[in-house]
Design the sequence.
């Protein structure tokens, strides 16, 4: 895995060297737990407000004091107070931020470091706030694309379970009193209801066990890499995942380059920050290629991750010396593509799941009322 250049990795190493071994791991776990309620939106709002105050020529301490006074999140306020204390003690803002990696990631800290060194911290923070807002919006849209079908499916499964566990057993008692031979369809549904009532707890335990097993397996890099690759091949959703990766990569790289960070340093930061192992591996190979003197477009072409249109536009950006602008343009293009696909996905999945739910519920209802229909025919 590629390493950050000394100038950019120094901040992160200060924290790592302050403690070691088991105590460092415990501290990180506790820190993660205590800061869990600090949302990305909290950080975005702080970044934009902080940048505006610096642009208005407030000092660093004054801007921090104002941000602390306006912050409503108690845990985030504690973080900001600790940052203010460290800044007053003589540390740079980037170094102070790096002591809270669960709130301010490597990407954030390095951009702040660049802004401080170049004397344009306010401009860099405004650019950072815009980037984070676009990333946050994109992430929400992709999550909603996954969450909406899951919600509909959850309602459908709940309705079916309600019928099988609550309603159908009532019919079973009624038909048992009739002591009559039931249609095969009704017997099948009653058997399924009885089995589910008897073994529902076992089914629940198996489901929980499967979820925990999958989580454990995905923590292993070998299986996580395969999972990240399989996600990109899922029909329709694979395209959505790919476009999300491209949009985030181009937006992040374009923002870093526009802030004055070199291409190699920017790719190293992205590689360290990304959680997708497939992207990590691709960037690692790209770094090797670029260090040999080849262009970014050529390096990306050797990795089967990025669509041809991206490679073409990046090559044009390199030829015209406007790579950062072209990357941001590509990111905007793919964000629009994701918006369109999310709308299409919603319009397709909603009626499909409703039809399937109607068929299943109709099947169960007909199965339970079939004996009554036959009885009415006999009486008639």
Sequence:
């Amino acid at each position: 895995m590629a390493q950050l250049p000394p100038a950019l990795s120094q901040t992160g190493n200060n924290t790592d060297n302050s403690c070691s071994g088991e105590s460092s791991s415990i501290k990180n776990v506790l820190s993660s737990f205590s800061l869990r309620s600090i949302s990305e939106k909290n950080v975005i709002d702080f970044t934009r407000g902080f940048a505006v105050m610096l642009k208005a020529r407030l000092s660093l301490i004054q801007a921090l004091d104002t941000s602390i006074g306006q912050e409503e999140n108690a845990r985030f306020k504690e973080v900001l107070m600790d940052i203010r204390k460290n800044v007053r003690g003589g540390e740079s803002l980037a170094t102070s931020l790096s002591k809270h990696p669960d709130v301010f990631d490597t990407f954030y800290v390095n951009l702040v470091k660049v802004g401080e060194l170049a004397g344009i911290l306010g401009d860099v923070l405004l650019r950072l706030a815009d980037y984070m807002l676009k990333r946050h919006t994109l992430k929400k849209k992709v999550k909603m694309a996954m969450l909406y079908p899951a919600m509909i499916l959850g309602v459908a499964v709940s309705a079916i379970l309600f019928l099988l566990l609550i309603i159908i057993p009532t019919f079973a008692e009624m038909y048992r009193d009739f002591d009559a031979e039931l249609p095969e369809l009704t017997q099948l549904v009653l058997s399924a209801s009885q089995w589910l009532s008897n073994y529902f707890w076992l089914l629940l335990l198996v489901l929980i066990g499967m979820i925990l097993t999958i989580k454990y397996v995905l923590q292993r890099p070998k299986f996580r890499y395969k999972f990240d690759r399989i996600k990109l091949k899922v029909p329709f959703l694979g395209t959505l995942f790919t476009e999300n990766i491209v949009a985030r990569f181009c937006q992040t790289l374009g923002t870093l380059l526009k802030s004055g960070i070199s291409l190699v340093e920017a790719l190293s930061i992205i590689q360290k920050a990304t959680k997708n192992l497939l992207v990590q591996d691709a960037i690692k190979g790209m770094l090797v290629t670029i260090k040999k003197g080849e262009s970014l477009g050529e390096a990306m072409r050797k990795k089967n991750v990025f669509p041809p249109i991206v490679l073409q536009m990046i090559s044009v950006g390199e030829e015209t010396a406007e790579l950062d602008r072209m990357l941001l343009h590509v990111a905007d293009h793919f964000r629009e593509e994701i918006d369109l696909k999310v709308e299409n996905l919603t319009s397709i999945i909603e009626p499909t799941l409703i039809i399937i739910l109607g068929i299943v519920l109709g099947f169960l209802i007909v199965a339970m009322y079939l004996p009554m229909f036959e009885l009415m025919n006999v009486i008639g």
